[in-house]
C-alpha cells in the first residue's frame, strides 16, 4: 500500500493499537488493523478513538477490508468485486441493520449514520467519471498481489448457489459435496472485478444465510454487501468504507477469496488517496472537529418533528412498485426532460382519476432523481398518521435535504437554532426559513444543481386549506431564481387543487392528465404489466407456462378500462386464490365492459367480487352469512376510517376482538389489503380507491358491504374511550417522580405501558367523535371519561410528547357541545 514507510512515533499512553506509518502519494498515512480475533462495530469504534488520541491531526479515514456480497438482478456482484459506501435512500451509505427498536407495529431501525466527508465523496465522484480507473487500479493490484497468497488464480472458483440451497456439510468450508444442480448460472464477465457504489449493511453478527441476506437487503431498500465494523465508525470518525467481496454471505461461506478481495479493496483505496490533492486535505478540519460538529448538527435536526413514512422509499412502501421498464415511456421521457432542462417551469402537475397510476409514476421519478442525490419526497396517505396531514410536511422535507445534501446541513441547522419554535410556525414561515433560504445560499449560478421535490397524492392531505397553502408556496417558486427547486406533484383533479393551478399562467406550469394518454398506449402498458405479473403467478402456483392465454391477457387488459389499479388488484386476487386461481381468473374474464360502463364501474365490480368471494357461499345459512358480512363491514369499516394504520394485534385490542378472528376475517382480502405476515406490522390499503368505493353507498350498496362512515367513527370513538378508561391511570409508567422529562424514558418502558393501540386512542378519540357527529351532553360517555381520566389522558400525551395535540383536541370539543334552552 505505502509508497514510502516511516519510522514509528510515540503513542498516547492509553493507545495500544499497532500502527504502520508512511506515505501514499502526497499524503502522510496511518494504517491500523483491528486486533486478531476481535470483530464488531464496537471494536472498530474503540480502535478509531485510540488512533485519534495519538494522531489528533488526522483528517479522515478509509475503512478497508472484506465483506459478504449480495448478488441480485440489479447488481451483478461477483467475488473479488469492490463495494464503496455511497449516501443513498435517506442514509449516509452505511446502515446498522441490527440496531433499532421493536414497536407494536414493526421493527424500526433507529439513529442515522453520518455520510463520508465531502473530500472523499468528491474523490469518489471523480473516480467514477474516470474511464481509465480500471487500468490504474489494476496497476496497484498487480503490485499488491505479487505474493502468491494474494493472487487471483489462487482464490479458487467463483460459485454462487441458489438462495434456497444450503451447504451440504455444515461446519466445513469444502463445497465438494454441494450439488452443482443448485448453482446459479450467470453470464461470463470479461473484467476481473467491478466497482459497485451504494449501501453497505453493518452489524455485530456474521451473516451466513442467503435467505436472511436477501430479506435484510429487501428490508433496507437494496444492500450491496454485509460487514461487521463500519457502523461503529461512521458517527465517530469521518470515513469512507471500501469492501472487497470475499463470499456471498450464505451457508457456503469460506475464506479462500479473502486475501484477493482484501487487495482489490486496498487497490481502490490507494487510488482514492492518490486522486485527492494534499492542499485540499491540509485546509480541512480534523476528524475530531468534524465529528463534534456532526454530533451538534444531528442534535439540532433531532429537534424537528418529522413524518418518518414520508419518503418514497421507506420500508412500509416496499410492496409499492415503480413503472415496469418499457411502460409509460413517453410520459417518463417528458417528465425527465422537464427535470433536466434549465429553463422550464418549476412545477409539473400530474393529475388523474383514482387508479390511473399516479403514485407509481411518482415513485419512478423520485427513484431516478434520488439516485443522483438530488431529490426529496413526501407521499401523502389518507389515514396514514403523520403523512395524512401537512403538519410535518416542511420539517420532513428540510430534514431530508439536510441528510441528503451535506452542504445544506449546517445552513438548515442554523435556521433551526435561530428559531427554536420553528415547528410551530405557519407553513409559509417554515418553508421560507427551512427550505427556500438554505437553498438560495447553496448556489444560484447555472452550474449549481437543481433539486426535485416529489409530492404524491396532495388530494389525500387532510385540510383543503393546508393543501392550498402548499400549492401557493409552490406557485411562488416561478418568480424565484434563487432557490433551484422543482416540484413534481400528483393528485386527483379536485376542485381546490384545480383552482390554485388555474391561477398560475399556463406558460409557468406544466400539467398533464393521465386520462389524456391514448387508450391503445395505456392498454399496451397494462397488457405488458399483466404478462409480467401472471408469469410470476404461474410459477408460484405451478401452472403451465402458457396460462393464461394471450387472448385472456388481452381481455383482462380491456376489462381494466385504463386502470392500473384494476390490473394490480386482479393479479393479487388470482394469486391469493391458490387452488381456485383458475376459477377466479374465469370470474374476471366474464366481466366484459359494456357500452357506457365507466372505469369506476369496472373498479367497483372487481372490489365487489373480492368482497363477495371472502364470504363463503356454501356451508352457511343466510343468517350466518349476513353475520359474517356484518362482522366484515365492522372490521373493514374501522380499517378504512382509522387516522393512522394499526397492526392486526393492535386493531383487535382496540376493537376488543381476538386477533385470530381478525386474521380469519381478512384471510381472503389480500387483493385489497396489504396484510403482513408479522402480527405486529401495520395493516394498509393497497389503494385509496377502495376506501372511496366502500364509503359510497351508490357504489358499494348493491354488494351489501357499504360502510356508514359516521357510524364507523362513532364506534371507533367508543372503542378508544373504553380502552383508555381501562388502561390509563396516575403514574402510568410507574416512574414515581412527577415532572420527570419524557426524553429520559426508555422506549421499552413506554411501549410496554402505552402500547400502540392505547397511543392511538389517546391521539384520535376526539377526532373520531367529531367525524361521527357526536354531540356532547351532561353525563354522557365523553363527560364521564373526562371527569375520571382527563389528567391521566394528559399525562399519557406528555409521555408520548404530544401534549399540544391534546390541547388542540380539547379546544375542538367546544364545537361538539349540545346546548338546549328550556
TrEMBL record:
**What are the GO MF terms of this UniProt record?**
catalytic activity
Q: Which UniProt keywords apply?
A: Repeat
Q: Does the keyword Membrane apply?
A: no
**What Pfam families does this protein's entry cite?**
NPHP3_N, PNP_UDP_1
Record-annotated Nephrocystin 3-like N-terminal domain positions:
334-492
Sequence ranges assigned to domain Nucleoside phosphorylase in this UniProt record: 15-257
Q: Name one GO biological process term.
A: nucleoside metabolic process
User: Can you name this protein?
Assistant: Purine and uridine phosphorylase
Amino acid at each position: 500500500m505505502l509508497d514510502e514507510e516511516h519510522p514509528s512515533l510515540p503513542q498516547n499512553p492509553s493507545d495500544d493499537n499497532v500502527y504502520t506509518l508512511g506515505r501514499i502519494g502526497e499524503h502522510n498515512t496511518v494504517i491500523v488493523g483491528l486486533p486478531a480475533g476481535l470483530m464488531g462495530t464496537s471494536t472498530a469504534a474503540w480502535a478509531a478513538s485510540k488512533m485519534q488520541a495519538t494522531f489528533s491531526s488526522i483528517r479522515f479515514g478509509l475503512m478497508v477490508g472484506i465483506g459478504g456480497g449480495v448478488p441480485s438482478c440489479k447488481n451483478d456482484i461477483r467475488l473479488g468485486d469492490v463495494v464503496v459506501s455511497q449516501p443513498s435512500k435517506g442514509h449516509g451509505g452505511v446502515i446498522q441493520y441490527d440496531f433499532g427498536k421493536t414497536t407494536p407495529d414493526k421493527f424500526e431501525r433507529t439513529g442515522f449514520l453520518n455520510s463520508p466527508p465531502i473530500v472523499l465523496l468528491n474523490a469518489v465522484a471523480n473516480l467514477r467519471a474516470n474511464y481509465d480507473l480500471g487500468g490504474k487500479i489494476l496497476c496497484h493490484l498487480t503490485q499488491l498481489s505479487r505474493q502468491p497468497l494474494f493472487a487471483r488464480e489462487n482464490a479458487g472458483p467463483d460459485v454462487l448457489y441458489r438462495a434456497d440451497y444450503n451447504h451440504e456439510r455444515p461446519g466445513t468450508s469444502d463445497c465438494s459435496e454441494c450439488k452443482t444442480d443448485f448453482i446459479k448460472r450467470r453470464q461470463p464477465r470479461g473484467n476481473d472485478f467491478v466497482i459497485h457504489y451504494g449501501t453497505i449493511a453493518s452489524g455485530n453478527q456474521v451473516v451466513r444465510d442467503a435467505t436472511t441476506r436477501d430479506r435484510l437487503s429487501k428490508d433496507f431498500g437494496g444492500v450491496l454487501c454485509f460487514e461487521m465494523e463500519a457502523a461503529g465508525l461512521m458517527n465517530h470518525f469521518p470515513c469512507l468504507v471500501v469492501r472487497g467481496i470475499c463470499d456471498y454471505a450464505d451457508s457456503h461461506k469460506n475464506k479462500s477469496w479473502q486475501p484477493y478481495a482484501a487487495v482489490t479493496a486496498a487497490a481502490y483505496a490507494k487510488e482514492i488517496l492518490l486522486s485527492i490533492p494534499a492542499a485540499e486535505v491540509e485546509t480541512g478540519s480534523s476528524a475530531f472537529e468534524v465529528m463534534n460538529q456532526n454530533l451538534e448538527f444531528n442534535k439540532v435536526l433531532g429537534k424537528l418533528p418529522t413524518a418518518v413514512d414520508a419518503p418514497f422509499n421507506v420500508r412500509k412502501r416496499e410492496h409499492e412498485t415503480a413503472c415496469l421498464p418499457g411502460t409509460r415511456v413517453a410520459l417518463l421521457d417528458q417528465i425527465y426532460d422537464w427535470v433536466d432542462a434549465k429553463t422550464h417551469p418549476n412545477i409539473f402537475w400530474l393529475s388523474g382519476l383514482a387508479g390511473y397510476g399516479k403514485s407509481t409514476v411518482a415513485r419512478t421519478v423520485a427513484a431516478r432523481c434520488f439516485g443522483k442525490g438530488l431529490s426529496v419526497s413526501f407521499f401523502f396517505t389518507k389515514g396514514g398518521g403523520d403523512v395524512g396531514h401537512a403538519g410535518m410536511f416542511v420539517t420532513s422535507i428540510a430534514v431530508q435535504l439536510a441528510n441528503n445534501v451535506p452542504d445544506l446541513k449546517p445552513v438548515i441547522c442554523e435556521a433551526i437554532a435561530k428559531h427554536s419554535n420553528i415547528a410551530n410556525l405557519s407553513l409559509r414561515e417554515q418553508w421560507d426559513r427551512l427550505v427556500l433560504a438554505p437553498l438560495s445560499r447553496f448556489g444560484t449560478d447555472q452550474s449549481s444543481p437543481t433539486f426535485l421535490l416529489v409530492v404524491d397524492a396532495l388530494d389525500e392531505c387532510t385540510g383543503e386549506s393546508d393543501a392550498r397553502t402548499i400549492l401557493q408556496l409552490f406557485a411562488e417558486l416561478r418568480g424565484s431564481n434563487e432557490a433551484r427547486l422543482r416540484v413534481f406533484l400528483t393528485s386527483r383533479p379536485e376542485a381546490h387543487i384545480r383552482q390554485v393551478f388555474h391561477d398560475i399562467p399556463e406558460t409557468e406550469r406544466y400539467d398533464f392528465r393521465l386520462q389524456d394518454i391514448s387508450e391503445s398506449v395505456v392498454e399496451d402498458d397494462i397488457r405488458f404489466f399483466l404478462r409480467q405479473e401472471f408469469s410470476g403467478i404461474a410459477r408460484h402456483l405451478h401452472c403451465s407456462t402458457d396460462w393464461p392465454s394471450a387472448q385472456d391477457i388481452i381481455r383482462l387488459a380491456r376489462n381494466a378500462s385504463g386502470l392500473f389499479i384494476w390490473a394490480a388488484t386482479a393479479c393479487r386476487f388470482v394469486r391469493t386464490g391458490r387452488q381456485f386461481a383458475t376459477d377466479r381468473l374465469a370470474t374476471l374474464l366474464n366481466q366484459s365492459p359494456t357500452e357506457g360502463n365507466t372505469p369506476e364501474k369496472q373498479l367497483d365490480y372487481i372490489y365487489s367480487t373480492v368482497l363477495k368471494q371472502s364470504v363463503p357461499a356454501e356451508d352457511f345459512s343466510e343468517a350466518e352469512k349476513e353475520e359474517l358480512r356484518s362482522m366484515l363491514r365492522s372490521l373493514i369499516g374501522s380499517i378504512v376510517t382509522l387516522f393512522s394504520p394499526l397492526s392486526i394485534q393492535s386493531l383487535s385490542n382496540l376493537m376488543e376482538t381476538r386477533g385470530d378472528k381478525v386474521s380469519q376475517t381478512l384471510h381472503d382480502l389480500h387483493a385489497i389489503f396489504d396484510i403482513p405476515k408479522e402480527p405486529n406490522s401495520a395493516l394498509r390499503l393497497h389503494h385509496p380507491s377502495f376506501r372511496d368505493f366502500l364509503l359510497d353507498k351508490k357504489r358499494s350498496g348493491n354488494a351489501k358491504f357499504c360502510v356508514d362512515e359516521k357510524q364507523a367513527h362513532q364506534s371507533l370513538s367508543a372503542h378508544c374511550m373504553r380502552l383508555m378508561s381501562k388502561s390509563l391511570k396516575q403514574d402510568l409508567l410507574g416512574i414515581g417522580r412527577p415532572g420527570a422529562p419524557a426524553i429520559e424514558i426508555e422506549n421499552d418502558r413506554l411501549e410496554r405501558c402505552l402500547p400502540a393501540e392505547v397511543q392511538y386512542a389517546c391521539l384520535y378519540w376526539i377526532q373520531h367523535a367529531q367525524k361521527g357527529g357526536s354531540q356532547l351532553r351532561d353525563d354522557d360517555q365523553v363527560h364521564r371519561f373526562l371527569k375520571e381520566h382527563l389528567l391521566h389522558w394528559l399525562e399519557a400525551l406528555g409521555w408520548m410528547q404530544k401534549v399540544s395535540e391534546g390541547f388542540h383536541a380539547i379546544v375542538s370539543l367546544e364545537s361538539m357541545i349540545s346546548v338546549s334552552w328550556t
